[in-house]
Amino acid sequence: MTTITTDALNGPWSLVRFVYRWPDGRELAPLGQARGQLLYQLEDGVPGRMAVQVVAGERPPLDPESDASLALHFRSGFAYGGRWSLHQGMVQHEVEIASIPGWEGSQLARQIQLVGDRLILSTDEPSPQLPQGGYETVLEWQR
């Protein structure tokens, strides 16, 4: 197995795919054809800042006077930022600010695979959108 380096992750990534995958192979794209950006930065050659934003590919116009519209838009994506580090095939996101308040101050660990110009991050931690768990969250990124 090839060791993934901080240099290999450094820089911008664009979201290709975001799905929940169950052990039987079933998949659900919770935001449809989602769009997103991920940025890993190095500071003096070591992991520094990171930021990620993922949104539903299709969202209706926002009506700021409607609680239902505001709630729909809140549920149609997520964003967070903080610091990052690598540990034995895992990337650790130390969340400092997030659109999901419960993530602030947390550490989100993601398994990493690099396949060509694709970065695959995955976790079996339940998502706030589907808290019962039993699936793996997979985000596939491309340079």
Describe the structure.
The protein is mainly beta and 143 residues long. It contains 2 helices and 9 strands, in the order H-E-E-E-E-H-E-E-E-E-E. It has an 8-stranded antiparallel beta barrel with strand order 1-3-4-5-6-7-8-9. Strand 6 (90-98) and strand 7 (107-115) form a beta hairpin. The radius of gyration is 16 Å and the shape is globular. The two termini are 21 Å apart. The mean pLDDT is 91.
Describe the protein's topology.
Layout: H1 6-9, E1 11-21, E2 27-28, E3 35-43, E4 46-55, H2 67-74, E5 77-87, E6 90-98, E7 107-115, E8 118-123, E9 136-142
Keywords:
143 residues, 8% helix, 9 strands, 2 helices, mainly beta
Rg from Cα: 16 Å
Into which percentage range does the β-strand content fall?
Answer: over 45%
**Total helical segments:** 2
Please summarize the sheet with the most strands: 8 strands, antiparallel, barrel
Question: How is the largest sheet built, in terms of strand order?
Answer: 1-3-4-5-6-7-8-9
Number of strands: 9
Unreliable residue stretches: none
First-last Cα distance: 21 Å
Helix content: under 10%
SSE class: mainly beta
Taking all residues together, what is the mean pLDDT? 91
Order of helices and strands: HEEEEHEEEEE
* Shape designation: globular
